[in-house]
Amino acid sequence: MAAMTDRSGLNTADPYDEELLPPPEWAPGTTMSPGTRALWAFVALAAAMAAGRIWVAPRIEAAALETWTTVFVAICVQALPFLVFGVMLSAAITAFVPPAVWRRLLPRRSGAAVPVAGVMGAVLPGCECASVPVAGGLMARGVAPAAALTFLLAAPAINPVVLVATAVAFPDSPQMVLGRFAASLIVAVLAGWAWLLLGRGEWLRVPSRPLAAAGAAARWESFRQAMRHDLMHAGGFLVVGGMAAATINVVVPASWVDGLAGVPVVSVLTLALLAVLMSICSEADAFVAASLTQFSPTAKLAFLVVGPMVDLKLIALQAGFFGRRFALRFVPLTFTLAVTVSLVVGGVLQ
């Protein structure tokens, strides 16, 4: 594998190195063939459907099923327009705005660049999936890692699409929009400064990248590919999140939920962990949070702050782009800051 060291002392690796590319075709001893994977997926689906028909269906009441369907459809219908609009804007910025623009807009001093990068995150509508490759591109082109990581955390949490979606989901609680903006920006800046002080170059792998393709046709093709990729991924996570939220509302006994929701710190940690597991796109998570009516505003705020910064798909993306050593350090740091700041900001706004 061809390894290089950039001027900031960070380890870089060419993602187009032949050792990093998967084999172009299936070969025995390398991975499972597509046909075998499809067969096992079909077997697993058939088994799940049979098990559901035998053990689950007899226990589902018509009223419970109706409630589940109502909650699920409401979440998806409300969130879908914001999701599509955010994906379109994110793909347009990715395709038509060169990464060098961000580098020219940031101060040269890393400490000053961190809060500026956090505020700049408001101009990148889109889910957290888009912020990871953009942050990697910024680092590869000379932007300080602390500033790029601040941008990575802030962009999916404080952009206009997310804030408008939050206002629509919480029409009677404008403080939820203010709290989400303030808490998310504070967490992003604190995480950037913490990485600036404590982070080490060997913990972070910055992939080198080729220059963006020139020409209008190439840029439009890049836009199309980015939009299709983000919409497929984000839409899938929205459906999963809506199903999970609807299931929680129907399956989990009200006494359990009320018991957790009644303990301030426990309720905040519960929704923070739920945000990690549900991995909902930031354009849609406010509608899921609004449906969790048993929990306090502070717990819902933690759900909205943690989700765009720490979830399962984002952890996988960070580990893939920047290395496992980075993810093992940055993810716990971000989660701890997000929960702590949510508790403080939520207490102030209540």
Automatic annotation (TrEMBL):
Coiled-coil residues: none
Superkingdom per UniProt: Bacteria
Cellular component GO terms, alphabetical: plasma membrane
InterPro entries: DUF318, UPF0718
Pfam families named in the record: ArsP_1 (PF03773)
Record's subcellular location: Cell membrane
Region (Disordered): 1-29
Keyword Transmembrane helix: yes
Keyword list, A-Z: Cell membrane, Membrane, Transmembrane, Transmembrane helix
Family: Belongs to the UPF0718 family.
Name this polypeptide is given: Permease
Taxonomic lineage: Bacteria, Bacillati, Actinomycetota, Actinomycetes, Streptosporangiales
